[in-house]
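REQUEST
  id: r-88c1
  op: predict_structure
  target: Autophagy-related protein 16 domain-containing protein
  payload:
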Amino acid sequence: REGEPRRVKSKLVIMDTCIYEKWSPDELANAAIKHALKALRKRHFLEEGAHSPAIVALSKPLASHGSEWKEKAENLELELQQCYKAQSRLSEQLVVEVAECRTFKTLVEEKEKVISELQQELNQSREECSPLKESLDEKIKGLDLMISENQALKAQLEEVTLKAKNAETENKMLIDRWMLQKMQDAERLNEANALYEELMGRLKANGIEQLARQQVDGVVRRFEAGAENFVGSTIPTTCNHKIPAHEGGCGSILFEHNSDKLISGGQDRTVKIWDTNTGLLSSTLYGCLGSVLDLAVTHDNRSIIAASSSNNLYLWEVGTGRIRHTLTGHTDKVCSVDVSKISSRYVVSAGYDRTIKVWDLQRGYCINTIISHSNCNALCFSADGQTICSGHVDGNLRLWDVKSGRLISEVAAHSNAVTSISLSGNGNIVLTSGRDNLHNLFDMRSFEVCGTLRANGNRLASNWSRSCISMDDNYVAAGSADGAIYIWSRLRADMVSTLREHTAPVLACSWSGLGSPLATADKNGSICIWT
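RESPONSE
  id: r-88c1
  status: 200
  body:
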């Protein structure tokens, strides 16, 4: 029978375990706590019952020691209470740990759920990325194919471009050869026409026409302002003075009206006034911020206007040497300027911004702007001051109305850029020079060519090479790239003299209104005075 209580206990544990399997975790925890407390009480009662006979047996022979044993019993009872307290604390810790375990278990379940969801999303993303990856591979293959095709097309384009350049070069060579042949044919035809006209003129006139024109011009000028100073122009032969005028080159020279004083402008940004009788410098005007490309002087000789590469025009008072106006408005270099023949109040200028501007010097600002599709290299006012004659890079000569800015007439003057325009003394003829190395005379009334001057060695040096016509309209002077100055007779249309003194290309010529002297300027900045 010693094993029966143990078997009963085992059956109870098995029954309890079966019951506990049906409970929730919280119920299991509470049942475990109750079971532990019940076991502790039962053990206490068992221990108390086991010790009670011994205590009774011992209390009889040891009655004399009752107080001592009582004290020990109290101590044991106190220790027993402390054991109960320790047991209570352990029970509380067990409850807390069970709660924490439950919480941790809940968190673990949540984490496992989240991990499961993430795993599903990952699998889904992999399934979605699979077709995208296939598509990307196909596009990469297509891109490689396009790159290879593009390289093949690029090679073909380079080959075609090279062929086009070669064809363009051959075409340009053929055009140049054709143009050269045409120019040679035209020169031969012009020479034949000139020879024919010369022979007919000698047969018919024998010099009487030339004498009559000179007498008429002299009579007309005696009724004009400054007629007391008028003399017929003579063919210059001698260089009286060679002046080192400007550093870097001199591109513009101009005589004062009815005076032998010469005005020059150069690359050194100065304007200088010279006494042509002595070759000495009279005064220097400062303040220009760029190279001087063209000059004009008012009819009273009190003001000088300079066109500059700084996009501005500068107006000086000759008496004080101070700048009176700085005319701004052009957006590129100003290459030509002129003053009205009627009033010194109005000035016209041309810039490389494809504009022609009319300025009022009394007000000091622009009063009209004319826009042209081709840049203008040279211009001048007509004798009546109502129109502007301009020569352009496209080789055309254009006539504009000053007030309205309307284009009145246009003619193809040269096969290349026009470099110079010079109005005759009576205002009926305008001289134009071009990069085709021709010098054409136009009748301002009909705007038709009335003469063409040329020379075999005459080659203009730049787009702003300035030629000139004498005051009596009998002679034309033009500089050349070889340093020579060629002089033609306008009436006979033949060359009468070649002057050589310059060692650099001649850029500008100017004939005094008194008939003499002739001034020329070259690319080295030297000025020669010819009589």
